[in-house]
Design a protein that fits this description.
- This protein is α+β, with helices and mostly antiparallel strands.
- It has a domain at 38-98 and 128-175: Alpha-Beta Complex (Aldehyde Oxidoreductase, domain 3).
- 22% of the residues lie in helices and 21% in strands.
- The protein has 5 helices and 9 strands; from the N terminus they run βββαββαββαβαβα.
- The protein has helices at residues 65-82, 111-114, 147-158, 176-179, 222-235; strands spanning 42-46, 51-57, 61-64, 87-91, 97-101, 123-131, 138-142, 165-171, 186-187.
- A 6-stranded antiparallel β-sheet has the order 8-2-7-4-1-9, covered by helices on one side.
- The longest helix is centred in the N-terminal third of the chain and has 18 residues, at 65-82.
- The radius of gyration is 28 Å and the shape is elongated.
Length: 236
């Protein structure tokens, strides 16, 4: 079953359902919550800059984690291409809330089941973040001369999100916390998905195979052969 439209969860409704314990998972109020899809929170180079730009919504809204990840990738790819090692981008909104969905069948002959139940509690299906009006979703730091390029990159990120947003600029050239950062800075490492590749074990001709390696057509162990011989003699 595909993912539901964002309009089904973008409004603030009811109490937040987000009580998850990492230290004691058995005591979590929410059971079986899926992992957050945002792969990286800090991108670029963390060093001394001149401007700080926040992406804030005009009204309160709920954003799913797949929206945040899509917006992050769109902005990060554009900035990496046009501002290499001259920006710092951070995802500020964390998807604490867990989305509940009451899955219903949509196949032929399931008319009664597909309507679902009234006020069904549902099962965990995803994560989302509750963002207030004026709260930062993304935060970027750049040099003043690179502001037009940053605006284009953040515009691409806004296209992946619901509703409308504003950009709030702040001069941090004389900020104490900014001046405490290094001029060279520290480059954020890109988080990549690890894929385990099992390499085939090469066995030379006449050499014994490695321990734990099972070659195709390998003969049975000597112990099994010894056990099989007495059984064959008994039959005779």
């Amino acid at each position: 079953m595909g993912i539901r439209p964002a309009k089904t969860v973008r409004e603030w409704k009811g109490q937040a359902w987000a009580r998850i314990s990492k230290r004691k998972p058995r005591k979590s109020f929410v059971k079986g919550a899926p992992q957050v899809r945002v792969r990286q929170w800090n991108m670029g180079v963390d060093k001394r800059f001149e401007l700080e730009v926040d992406v804030v919504p005009k009204e309160r809204i709920q954003l799913r984690d797949n929206q945040l990840e899509a917006a992050r990738q769109a902005a990060n790819k554009y900035l990496e291409k046009n501002l290499p090692e001259a920006f710092f981008l951070q995802v500020c909104a964390y998807p604490h809330l867990v989305i509940r969905e009451h899955s219903a069948l949509g196949v032929a002959g399931a008319d009664r089941i597909s309507k679902g139940m009234k006020r069904a509690f549902g099962k965990p299906k995803g994560r989302m973040a509750r963002v207030k009006a004026g709260q930062a979703v993304f935060r970027a730091r750049i040099y003043a001369k690179d502001l037009p390029i940053l605006k284009k990159g953040l515009t691409r990120a806004e296209m992946k999100l619901s509703r409308s947003f504003n950009l709030i600029l702040k001069d941090i050239s004389k900020n104490t916390s900014n001046l405490a950062r290094s001029v060279i800075g520290k480059k954020m490492k890109e988080v990549k998905v690890e894929v385990k590749v099992v390499e085939p074990v090469a066995v030379a001709e006449g050499a014994a195979p490695a321990e734990g390696a099972k070659a195709e057509g390998a003969e049975a162990p000597a112990e099994k052969k010894a056990e099989a011989k007495p059984a064959a003699k008994g039959k005779k």
